[in-house]
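Let's practice the habit of predicting before peeking. Look at the sequence and jot down your guess about where helices and strands might fall. Then scroll down.
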Amino acid sequence: MVSCRVFSKYKTLTKADAQKASQQWDDLKNGLSEDAELLGEYNHVLGIEYNGFLLFEAEKADSFLDWWSTFKNSIRWYVEKTYTITALKR
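Done guessing? Here is the structure:
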């Protein structure tokens, strides 16, 4: 079992870009590997420089990490910075 927390700092977006990013995010979630699950989407993270984070779990690391590279490449235009913590359950 793989657990992944992705902290994100978003760029300031126009209303049109925010709508585009939202649609793209919906598409990415629909393309998540079958053995993975998005457990939560969180906004307004207090106490750190990031303003949101995602929480994922997956049965198999390989398929999740394959999806992960697509995810990271597609969000670069509206995410200024990310910090990712990935762990394997004992």
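How did you do? The chain has a mean pLDDT of 90.
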